[in-house]
Amino acid sequence: MEDTPNTGGAAGSSTEASTGAQPDPADGPAGGRAEPYGTVAIRENKLEKWPNPEPGRSYLVSMDLPEFTCLCPRSGFPDFALIKIRYQPRDWIVELKSLKLYINGYRDRALSHEAAANQILDDLVSLLEPRWMRVTADFNVRGNIKTVIRTEHGVRERT
């Protein structure tokens, strides 16, 4: 069977036929709005780990996530931060796409700056069991106050 575009004939809606408008790809099969694929990916994501290719070597992994957002638990206004993750892996490293989606999952969560930094550290330490890890949450200025939260696990080895 050959794929042909819907030109607004009998199968198309009368609005599409009369205006020439194309259907919105985000519309579901019944014409309702489908949930965007990114929202689904964030909701269904689970942090993943991969085997460390050099578990016997002490080395440093550095990642910056400049688009972190969460919500102020008091006002509901968004807070923006640069999240810096530094760690020395033992047996596991974090899979980056799962980390990206995990971080994006904070965008609708209402929590303090301190809670965000500590939760990220706790979740990553629980998953990876690193030799050492630091999470720094460098929040943008709000209300004339600059907040930087730094939380650590373990003891850093010389590299």
Question: What would you say this structure looks like, in words?
Answer:
The chain has a domain of 101 residues: GTP Cyclohydrolase I, domain 2. It contains 4 helices and 6 strands; from the N terminus they run H-H-E-E-E-E-H-H-E-E. The protein has a 4-stranded antiparallel sheet, covered by helices on one side. A two-stranded antiparallel sheet has the order 1-4. A hairpin with an 8-residue loop joins strand 5 and strand 6. The longest helix is centred in the C-terminal third of the chain and has 16 residues. The radius of gyration is 22 Å and the shape is flat.
Largest sheet: 4 strands, antiparallel
Overall CATH class of the domain at 54-154: Alpha Beta
Distance between the termini: 61 Å
Based on secondary structure, the structural category is: alpha+beta
- Taking all Cα atoms into account, the compactness measure Rg is 22 Å
Set down the secondary structure blueprint.
Blueprint: H1 14-19, H2 37-44, E1 49-51, E2 61-71, E3 78-88, E4 92-94, H3 96-104, H4 113-128, E5 132-139, E6 148-154
Provide key terms for this protein.
6 strands; flat; disordered N terminus; 159 residues; 25% helix; four-stranded antiparallel sheet; two-stranded antiparallel sheet; 4 helices; GTP Cyclohydrolase I, domain 2; alpha+beta
Briefly, what is this?
With about 160 residues, the chain is an alpha+beta fold. The protein contains four helices and six strands; from the N terminus they run ααββββααββ. The N and C termini lie far apart (about 60 Å).
